[in-house]
Structure formats: structure tokens, C-alpha cells
Amino acid sequence: MATVDITQDTLGQTIAENDIVLLDWWAEWCGPCKQFAPTYEAASEKHEDIVFGKVDTEDQQMLAASAQISSIPTLMAFREGILVFSQPGALPSSALDQVIDAVKGLDMDEVRAEVAKHSQDATDA
């Protein structure tokens, strides 16, 4: 699967309707973003079971602000609608493969239990 452009209008539905979604937050003027783009594109061709989205932070400034993007490129991974990875910086293909393998290997029952625990802790505080 090739990469897909993600906007304010499509983000929620994309995350809700797909098991794994990776998001590359980028901008045209960003050198590291341009360096990372071919690596990200190649991974999208290799992992057809994952949605590889790209968010242009210049075009989607409000979306980038609401996601608290402060450095680009930033890579985010969602699994079953839960943000499970977020890290700024361009990754080499081997590191991107490690992230993808880790996201695929997550025990989502454990992740949901951890999210519930943190939500409860925040409520108790």
C-alpha cells in the first residue's frame, strides 16, 4: 500500500477503521523529512497490512498543533485506536522495521489495561 495523505477530516476515521496506522508528520521545507520519505514509502510497500499516513504540518497546522507536534519529522503509531509510539526524528529503515515489528507484537489486552490504569491514576490525583 502506498502512503495516504491525512487531514483533520480523515484522521479520526483512519485511526478508528484500521488495526495499525503509522503517521509521518512532515513539511516540504524539512530536510530530514525529505530524507525519511523514501524509507517510509518503501516500508509502506512492504507492509500492506498497515496504513501509512502522511500529515503535511504546513497544510494541517491545526491538526499538528492539536497533536502537539513540536519537531518534524515525527513518527506516530496507533494500534486499535491507541497511540502506542511517538518519536521525533528521521529513522533509518532498520529502526523503522523495529518499530513496526514492536507495534505488531504488542499484547493489546496489556496495553488497554495499562491505559485504563493511567486513566484511573489521573482521576484519583
From TrEMBL:
The keyword 4Fe-4S does not apply. SUPFAM superfamilies: Thioredoxin-like. The record marks D24 as: Deprotonates C-terminal active site Cys. Residues 1-105 form the Thioredoxin domain. Signal peptide: none annotated. Disulfide bonds join C30-C33. The keyword Electron transport applies. It comes from the Bacteria. The active site is at C30 (nucleophile), C33 (nucleophile). GO terms for molecular function: protein-disulfide reductase activity. The record marks G31, P32 as: Contributes to redox potential value. GO terms for cellular component: cytosol. InterPro entries: Thioredoxin, Thioredoxin-like_sf, Thioredoxin_domain. Keywords: Disulfide bond, Electron transport, Redox-active center, Transport. Belongs to the thioredoxin family. This is Thioredoxin. It comes from Kocuria turfanensis. The lineage of its organism: Bacteria, Bacillati, Actinomycetota, Actinomycetes, Micrococcales.
